[in-house]
Amino acid sequence: MLRLHFTDDDLRSIRVSRGPDPLWEIVCSLCRLGTGDGRTEFGGWRDATRDRLRRDERLRVALTPLRGLVPSHGYIPDLLTPDAGGDLTAGLDAIGATPVRVVADQMGRLNAGQAKLRGPIASPRVDAVNLTRVVRALRTYFDYLLRPHLPRIRGQVGVDVDLRSQSLLAGGVQGLLESLAPYARWRDPVLEVDYPVSRDVFLRGRGLLLVPSFFCWRRPTALADPDLTPTLVYPVAKPAWHLARDSGRSASRLLGRTRAAILQAVAGRDSCGGCTSTDLARVVGIAQSSFTYQMSALRDGGLVSSRRCGKYVVHAVTPLGLRILDGA
To answer: Which helix or strand (DSSP H or E) is residue 5 part of?
Structure first.
């Protein structure tokens, strides 16, 4: 069990990620890829991903630096999941700037943990880590194996964020913490979390970052280093992967091909928290005047939101839009 000890300052400093954290989704999905866990929830994605890796030798080679870094069980290096506010580029930059001493310490802990679990002969050692290659491999993994599924991932995480927000509005911080059941139990001033080992973490006024995750499974996970930003990653509810409908076809039937294409383009691109009208019109392949009309209809229906960012107007998909894309 993981016991998170709160002070009054910690209770005033709880944060909930507004969307999926790309690095945590990478790490958690690598764990799911390496095991048969969550067959109902992840089986379709895992089978398709393994099949692609079998057929695409260049992709397998590109992902080689990740081999051994993310074991299915046991310690996973904290350097792979820095607190970057859910920004993939910023997170990868932080990984690339990890001090050599920290890398050495965490690789030593990784090797020791795997040797303890599997034995020194059965556990491959990870001694030399080229962070430039690791960062490149993480970007490639995300772009090829996770980005195509972002509408589904964002949709399910968005549903969870809505639920946490409602719990906070209805019951305050206590309501928010109690809403984490059955994964955690609030016993003021301690949050008891279902966890594979016994640990106590004293927050000491730093607050707690709650990160809902699509690929997290069965129980929450957390950073191993108690001096890093206190973070609790927990699984969101999700339908069976193979039962979900094709988001492109279902959205097209509901909205029409052009509006569905715009909605999918917004969900798959990020620029200043969204994407610009010029970017979207070019991606979808329609005239700016037609785009303006279609975007207005999507905005009136509550499927997208628009705001000014510097000299541009940027657009983002709302939780309702993400759920429609997910075929919910």
So the answer is: strand 2-5
One DSSP character per residue, 162-203 reads HHHHHHHHHHHHHHHHHTTTTTEEEETTEEEE--SS-EEEE-
The DSSP line for 100-132 is HHHHHHHHHHHHHHHHHHH-TTTS-------HH
DSSP tag of 256:
-
Quickly list DSSP for 265-294.
HHHH--BTTBEEHHHHHHHHT--HHHHHHH
CB 43 within 8 A of CB 243: no
pLDDT at 244: 45
**Per-residue pLDDT at 272 exceeds 50:** no
Structure tokens at 255: 């909205």
Helix (H) or strand (E) holding 143: none
Q: How many domains does the chain have?
A: 3
Answer yes or no: is 194 within a domain.
yes
Residue 199 lies in a domain: yes
- 148: pLDDT strictly greater than 60: yes
End position of a domain, from candidates 148, 174, 189: 148
The residue that leads in pLDDT, 36 or 217, is: 217
Instruction: Say how far apart CA 263 and CA 324 lie, in whole Å.
Output: 9
Same domain as 278, residue 296 = yes
By residue range, what is the domain housing residue 164? Answer: 2-18+152-235
Q: Is the pTM of this model over 0.90?
A: no
In angstroms, the Cα distances linking 187 to 1, 6, 7, 177, 251 are 13, 10, 13, 10, 44
The pairing of beta strand 304-309 with beta strand 312-317 = antiparallel
